[in-house]
Automatic annotation (TrEMBL):
Pfam families associated with the record: Glyco_hydro_25
BP term (GO), one: signal transduction
Highest taxon, organism lineage: Eukaryota
InterPro entries per record: GH, GH25_Enzymes, Glyco_hydro_25
Stored Gene3D superfamilies: Glycosidases
Segments crossing the lipid bilayer: none
Xref: SUPFAM superfamilies: (Trans)glycosidases
Protein name per the record: Lysozyme
Entry similarity comment: Belongs to the glycosyl hydrolase 25 family.
Leader sequence segment: 1-18
Species of provenance: Blepharisma stoltei
Keywords of this entry: Signal
Length: 210
């Protein structure tokens, strides 16, 4: 199922057919995903690993509920725990927990939360995690924002720019017209354009790709 990763679809879907999706960080029922799908959302991204350093207990259910609820694509995101150490081990724990579940990509969620004051240490942590996911046969992406990247690793660090970018900017605008290049990315893959929305009985963030 890795071949149906969202990034591949981002390239192959014509701009006239821009799509919206959701990401979730809590248990979300199949009925909620079905309702979201019926209201125009066609992909889901579910949390797979929590910032406190453990696999999300809802990840397998959420993957299944997203797929069975009609989402054309379902990805997973990993919120790293820097103070926990062992970035490769965190990646392995997630991959093992979701093996065989029919998901697409694994996105590494890089946002301000308990990172080291030394940006070089943060860079090495992220690179190690991304490399381990790749070694495990995963399709990898990076979730972040301009300001989070600036704070955590520095705008000029390009160590993971070979992976697609899912960026956050809550301007309620389904367009990449607001995007400012950073980290070696000139073109993003997905935009998280709105957050903390209640819809179809679920708490969602809203996402867009052209």
């Amino acid at each position: 199922m890795k071949m149906f990763a969202l990034f591949i679809l981002c390239i192959s879907v014509p701009s006239a057919f821009a799509a919206t999706g959701v990401d979730v960080s809590a248990y979300t029922s199949q009925d909620s995903f079905s309702c979201l799908n019926q209201n125009g959302y066609i992909f889901g991204i579910v949390r797979g690993y929590c910032s406190y350093g453990a696999v999300d207990p809802n990840v397998v259910s959420n993957i299944q509920n997203s797929i069975n609820g009609g989402m054309q694509n379902t990805d997973v995101y990993l919120f790293p725990c820097y103070p926990c150490g062992d970035p490769a081990g965190q990646a392995d724990d997630l991959v093992n927990a979701i093996a065989g579940q029919g998901y697409g990509m694994v996105w590494i969620d890089i946002e301000v939360y308990a990172w080291d004051s030394d940006q070089g240490n943060n860079q090495n942590f992220i690179l190690t995690m991304a490399n381990e996911l790749t070694n495990q046969g995963q399709s990898v992406g990076i979730y972040t924002s301009y300001y989070n990247w600036q704070s955590i690793v520095g705008l000029g660090w390009t160590g993971v720019s070979q992976y697609p970018l899912w960026y956050a900017h809550y301007d309620d605008w389904m367009s990449f017209g607001d995007f400012t290049p950073f980290g070696g990315w000139n073109t993003p893959a997905i935009k998280q354009y709105n957050g903390d929305v209640s819809y179809c009985g679920a708490g969602i963030d809203q996402d867009y790709y052209p």
